[in-house]
């Protein structure tokens, strides 16, 4: 009987993968479990998948046969980072991350960025509240469609093509999702980024589709930027931006810039969403495997905590998501910061402080 069912339990697939991935994911799981126990509002059931570069080197595959099918049974996927010094980056990226995002139709990549209380932007005079953005990145085609080829290998006339694919279907669904996101935010402002002065096919189609979609959102204010000018605006007038939508390549670059302007690449989250909710969505910190700091206990886990909050939000646990982010900001505000944010705390200290804050908040 529905009257007797307890709080909902979500099934979460964890793919910690490489480098600092396992360190930050285990910190994230600890914080999520603490939040679930303390709130009693929902349950979490974690299942670990050991899909990493070691497996690739051993077996030639990141994802074993049938792996995707079992992944599809979960409510959400929590992902660490992929990439190893002895595996070419394009192999690991296509072997694991894109091999999940593409078949699971996670076509919208969402990257919120803000300056957390108690942390600093490298921009002079830019503080908490001056920079509060969400970047929506096209995650299914564009410059990373994998189309192209090479001929005449090794010859001086060797030629490589890297073809960008833009389809009306994919561009429209993404821009529509971005407008819906903008509409839910306070400022109701969207910046559509292209390079339609130099790229006269796909980028001009983007501009046209954006203008069409904008008609359906009369209360959202839209402006257009070329990607090069956009980098200047992000640095010089961060207050003038809110929701930003861009192609796979452009948003990839802009979101790293955004993370750095907000203080550190170690704090920022990413959601790979299937807005149709046919398949589970995947949540990951924006940073990579960071082998230079792996095993040292200094990785900033906040990117994963924020990621965990975004995952809860997508699952419908808004209150828990807001509470978690609030607790993270309280801990930052008390100066418990990792080295990348100018502090001295390790992963463990920050994790324990956030867990304590979560328990205390109830
Ligand atoms: P990828 O190719 O997967 O993006 P990468 O090595 O190019 O990986 P990152 O792994 O993101 O890039 O790391 C860039 C630098 O930022 C690293 O040298 C690392 O010191 C620092 N860094 C990344 N993530 C964190 C983190 N969570 N905490 C502290 N420092 C970090
Ligand atoms: Mg990188």
Give me some keywords for this one.
alpha/beta; 11 helices; binds adenosine-5'-triphosphate; 362 residues; two-stranded antiparallel sheet; single chain; 22% strand; binds magnesium ion; 39% helix; globular
Explain what the structure shows:
It is a single chain. With 362 residues, the protein is an alpha/beta fold. The protein is 39% helix and 22% strand. It is built from eleven helices and twelve strands. It has helices spanning 21-39, 53-59, 67-71, 89-101, 168-184, 202-214, 227-236, 248-261, 302-315, 318-333, 347-360; strands at residues 9-17, 43-48, 76-81, 108-114, 132-138, 142-151, 159-165, 189-194, 221-226, 243-246, 269-273, 281-285. A ten-stranded mixed β-sheet has the order 2-1-3-12-11-4-5-10-8-9, sandwiched between helices. The protein has a two-stranded antiparallel sheet with strand order 6-7. Helix 1 (21-39) runs parallel beside helix 11 (347-360) and helix 7 (227-236) packs parallel to helix 8. The protein is globular. Adenosine-5'-triphosphate is lined by residues 20, 81, 83, 89, 265-266, 287-290, 292-293, 299-300, 303, 338, 340.
């Amino acid at each position: 009987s529905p009257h007797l069912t307890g709080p909902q339990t979500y099934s979460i697939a964890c793919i910690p993968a490489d480098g600092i991935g396992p360190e930050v994911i285990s910190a994230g799981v600890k914080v999520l479990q603490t939040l679930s126990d303390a709130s009693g509002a929902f349950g979490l059931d974690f299942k670990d998948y050991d899909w990493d570069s070691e497996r690739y080197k051993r077996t030639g595959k990141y994802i074993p046969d049938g792996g995707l099918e079992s992944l599809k049974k979960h409510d959400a996927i929590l992902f660490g980072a992929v990439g190893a010094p002895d595996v070419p980056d394009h192999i690991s990226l296509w072997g694991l991350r894109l091999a999940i995002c593409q078949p699971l139709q996670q076509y919208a990549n969402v990257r919120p960025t803000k300056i957390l209380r108690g942390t600093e932007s490298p921009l002079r005079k830019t503080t908490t509240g001056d920079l509060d953005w969400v970047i929506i990145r096209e995650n299914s085609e564009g410059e990373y469609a994998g189309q192209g080829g090479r001929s005449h290998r090794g010859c001086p006339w060797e030629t490589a093509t890297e073809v960008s694919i833009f389809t009306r279907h994919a561009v429209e669904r993404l821009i529509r999702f971005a407008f819906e996101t903008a509409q839910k935010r306070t400022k109701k402002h969207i910046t559509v980024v292209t390079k339609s002065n130099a790229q006269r096919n796909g980028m001009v189609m983007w501009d046209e589709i954006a203008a069409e979609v904008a008609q359906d959102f009369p209360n959202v204010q839209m402006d257009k930027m070329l990607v090069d000018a956009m980098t200047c605006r992000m640095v010089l007038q961060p207050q003038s931006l809110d929701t930003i939508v861009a192609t796979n390549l452009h948003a990839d670059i802009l979101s790293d810039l955004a993370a750095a302007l907000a203080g550190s690449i170690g704090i920022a989250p990413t959601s790979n969403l299937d807005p149709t909710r046919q398949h589970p969505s995947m949540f990951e910190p924006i940073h990579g495997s960071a082998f230079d700091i792996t095993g040292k206990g200094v990785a900033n886990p906040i990117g994963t905590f924020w990621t965990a909050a975004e995952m809860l939000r997508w699952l419908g646990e808004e209150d828990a998501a807001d509470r978690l982010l609030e607790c993270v900001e309280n801990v930052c505000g008390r100066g418990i910061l990792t080295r990348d944010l100018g502090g001295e705390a390790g992963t463990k200290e920050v994790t324990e402080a956030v867990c304590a804050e979560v328990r205390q908040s109830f």
